[in-house]
Amino acid sequence: MEAKENVLLDIKDLHIWYRVYGGYLKVLNGVNLILREGERVGLVGEAGCGKTTTMKSILQILPPGDFLIPKGEIYYKGKDILKMNSSEIQRLRSREIAMIFQDPTAALNPVFTVGTQIGDVIKYSIALEEKKVHKEKIKILSVKALKEVSLPDPERMLVNYPFQLSGGMRQRVCIAMAISSNRNLLIADEPGTSLDVTIQDQILRLLKEIVEKKGTSIILITHSLGVAREMTDRIYVMYAGTIVETALTKDLFRNPVHPYTKGLLASVPKLSGGGIAKGIPGRIPDYLNPPQGCRFQPRCQHATCSCAENPPQLFEVEKGHLVACYLAQR
Amino acid sequence: MEVKQVKLGSFLLKRFLLSIFVIIGLSIVIFIIARVVPGDPARMALGPRAPEDVVQALRKEMHLDKPLPVEYFYWIKGVVRGDFGQSLVSKRPVAEDIKEFFPATMELAIFAGILMVIFAILLGVLAAQYKNTWIDSLIRMLSYFGIAIPAFVVAIIFMLLFGYYWPILPVLGRLSSGITPPRTITGLLTLDSLIEGNFPAFWDAFKHLILPGVALSLGGLFQEARITRSSMVDNMHKDFLAAERGYGIPEKIVMFKYLLKPSLISTVSIMGLDFASLLSNAFLVELIFNWPGISRYGINAMLHKDLDAISAVIIVFGVVFLVVNIIVDVIVALLDPRIRLGAARDV
């Protein structure tokens, strides 16, 4: 593969299981993902395929005590996050990586003001270096962060509670918290999907602007291929806890190889008529007893016997275009 | 900020006005119940051997010969001025009896309430933090016992354990016989003796409080601990907590600021109700520990059909209950801006 030095994030064979009554939900089944500095990467897949779980595991914010990581490594700047101690994790969260959540209403604490929440984020980031943090400094930085996401009247916004803001404003507040300490990597989990299309568009444009201005790397989780096409350099397609295909964005749209990717592309409804899109029959497998071999095999039109035996490994079909499917290897 | 205070003020005013209506309603209900029970209060006051014309005179004096609404009017006029009538048992004005017995009950209830709040939150937080470990299981098991066993049974067990087998704490009354009681300022012995600087009296009064106080508080305490735990565990899975942790806010701040505050809302809301059940449990607990409180006075009044005293006790309890619930509402409003600022839209 290419030179290692500018790799920012490297997820290797990550497995995550959730503990439930009656066993384990084997949600992630070997996720491999590489992100280089300054790169904009899209993570695409249908709901429930493990996109958010993968991203939350990077920040170690999965609900405590309910999950298990039987296998895998997450390297950030060459260091395994899963082996970090709590102060290293603290620094990682305060300075390096931030996540923007899907639903801004759920991501803001309902009983604290915007100023308290964003102020604490800034305070504990500064506290890593300085013993005493002045209230004035926190306020100035909070206002600056709110200005950066084009919120009107940021000073007044500080004393507002989340329920007093509109959905779009809340999303902007969340973004302000995420960018407040000039972090290197933003993880945006379907930003704005819970909002109006027009607002969603504004939010995405804002995010694009910020990323371009600051040179931040970004992982954009989305189930909209249109958004991914517009916003990213490279795309990972995920299905049921595994990466099934990755390629440069233009290559993926020009030449999708994996049957699942093809199905996803066919599922996009066209504005110019043509009726309801084709879609993919069936649904995401039961994680308690996932299918043997390729996890997509029960829904795949091209499945053969070998698909049900061993899971296919990622295979390079062209430069930088990897596919986990026996079809591609033939 | 100004807007906030105005809103809280009008919120308080609204609650207060509402309470007045509740009290009026309560007084009507009590009055009617007290009058429809069979038996002639005048005859009961004077005894079976009093001559008929004396009884009639007393009936007139007590306005018993008037129609019910007029009678109510005379009664409520007295109540507003602090005149609850005459007790048939103690032969004193009911207001004086209340003044004497009420502080004892309040002292017990406040002490039990404080225990309830402190230990409920403590145990709830502990159980949530050590979810699904032996600590959580132990607290859960204790809770089942605490909720299932009635306060008077606990009181009797305490009496047996600490009064008979292992006599380390006093089990009768409010003060030992050798101790001079402090001057009455608030009527709460512990508080009065502290104000006077009389520490031996304070310590003695405090020791007398422990057993009945603990017996009274247990039910509500464990119920609230369970509620605190479950709402904390619920909130632990909320996105905002993952977000706050993910943005680098330290674990301790996340737990005790961002998790505890929203979780306490449901605990505090239930406290008003628990305080009411605490007062009703006080009837039996006061009897067992020979606590000279208003609950015991109320029971005596009931046994002797002392109507004015019964009505007064119920009204006093009603007022206490309303005051406690206003306090609870204010605390909830302080904790939850959505209630305080009167906007529960899209939550």
UniProtKB/TrEMBL annotation, chain A:
The keyword Cell membrane applies. Keywords: ATP-binding, Cell membrane, Membrane, Nucleotide-binding, Transport. One of its GO terms (biological process) is peptide transport. CDD domains: ABC_NikE_OppD_transporters. It is found in: Cell inner membrane. One of its GO terms (molecular function) is ATP hydrolysis activity. One of its GO terms (cellular component) is plasma membrane. It is a peripheral membrane protein. PROSITE patterns: ABC_TRANSPORTER_1 (PS00211), ABC_TRANSPORTER_2 (PS50893). Belongs to the ABC transporter superfamily. This is ABC transporter ATP-binding protein. It comes from Candidatus Cryosericum septentrionale. The lineage of its organism: Bacteria, Pseudomonadati, Caldisericota/Cryosericota group, Candidatus Cryosericota, Candidatus Cryosericia.
From TrEMBL, chain B:
The keyword Transmembrane applies. Keywords: Cell membrane, Membrane, Transmembrane, Transmembrane helix, Transport. It is found in: Cell membrane. Residues 102-332 form the ABC transmembrane type-1 domain. Pfam families: BPD_transp_1 (PF00528), BPD_transp_1_N (PF19300). GO terms for cellular component: plasma membrane. InterPro entries: BPD_transp_1_N (IPR045621), MetI-like (IPR000515), MetI-like_sf (IPR035906). It comes from the Bacteria. GO terms for biological process: transmembrane transport. It is a multi-pass membrane protein. The chain crosses the membrane at residues 12-34, 108-130, 142-166, 205-222, 264-289, 309-335. CDD domains: TM_PBP2 (cd06261). The keyword Isomerase does not apply. PROSITE patterns: ABC_TM1 (PS50928). PANTHER family: DIPEPTIDE TRANSPORT SYSTEM PERMEASE PROTEIN DPPB-RELATED. Belongs to the binding-protein-dependent transport system permease family. This is ABC transporter permease. It comes from Candidatus Cryosericum septentrionale.
